[in-house]
């Protein structure tokens, strides 16, 4: 690999040329249009390319990514993305997407020290601690995957409780929060049935989705 990353710039030129050849005027149309219906909040893991997984083009999916797909009320970066997506772009769906084999979740599960990210992963450790008794009841080889799914449910619930989503619901705007998990082993997305469209649905949806997760690991 070169020091000036020429190979990436060359690949970009090839991609742009192929895209324009396949759909003439593609980039000029993008200049005047950004109308995504979906906000994807996922993990920063390089193996989880959001647009590719759902086969959507640029402009069709608004994306925010961080270590272990965390949504916390003190993260102004995530909240700013959510606010712009909901208030300005009028997205109708917010999808929290975790994935199997998540390194951040593993570090939280096993109390592994990784550096500055330890402070961020503390949020996932809170999820682990909240569900510790159930996780301890599982086989050791099940706990990592189970915590990945639990983390999705908890972060989706956090998204529902943000002022951004609560305010949207209060003014009658249609915003639905979803919790999904992506399987690195098969390339498939799974709906964890944490689907919430109103304030009153948050608690029952969370408990229904949590019961479904626990049933799968029984």
TrEMBL record:
Enzyme Commission (EC) number: 4.2.1.1
Function statement: Reversible hydration of carbon dioxide.
Gene name of the record: can
Stored SMART domains: Pro_CA
Highest taxon of the lineage: Bacteria
Coiled coil: none
Reaction catalyzed: hydrogencarbonate + H(+) = CO2 + H2O
PANTHER family: CARBONIC ANHYDRASE
Name of the top EC class for this enzyme: lyase
Cofactors that this protein relies on: Zn(2+)
Pfam family for this entry, one: Pro_CA
Family: Belongs to the beta-class carbonic anhydrase family.
Record's protein name: Carbonic anhydrase
InterPro entries: Carbonic_anhydrase (IPR001765), Carbonic_anhydrase_CS (IPR015892), Carbonic_anhydrase_sf (IPR036874)
Keywords assigned by UniProt, alphabetized: Lyase, Metal-binding, Zinc
């Amino acid at each position: 690999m070169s020091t000036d990353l020429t190979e990436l710039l060359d690949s970009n030129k090839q991609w742009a040329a192929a895209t324009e050849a396949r759909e003439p005027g593609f980039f000029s149309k993008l200049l005047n249009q950004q109308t995504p219906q979906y906000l994807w909040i996922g993990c920063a893991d390089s193996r989880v390319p959001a647009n590719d997984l759902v086969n959507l083009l640029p402009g069709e999916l608004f994306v925010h990514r961080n270590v272990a797909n965390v949504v916390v009320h003190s993260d102004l970066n995530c909240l700013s993305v959510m606010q712009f997506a909901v208030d300005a772009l009028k997205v109708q769906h917010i999808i929290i997407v975790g994935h199997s084999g998540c390194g951040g979740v593993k570090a939280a599960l096993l109390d592994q020290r990784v550096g500055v990210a330890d402070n961020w992963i503390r949020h996932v450790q809170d999820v682990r601690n909240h569900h510790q008794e159930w996780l301890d009841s599982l086989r050791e080889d099940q706990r990592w995957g189970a915590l990945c799914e639990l983390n999705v449910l908890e972060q989706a619930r956090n998204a529902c409780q943000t002022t951004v989503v609560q305010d949207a619901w209060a003014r009658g705007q249609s915003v639905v929060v979803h919790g999904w998990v992506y399987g690195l082993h098969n390339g498939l997305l799974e709906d964890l049935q944490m689907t919430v469209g109103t304030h009153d649905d948050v608690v029952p949806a969370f408990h229904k989705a949590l019961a479904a997760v626990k049933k799968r690991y029984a």
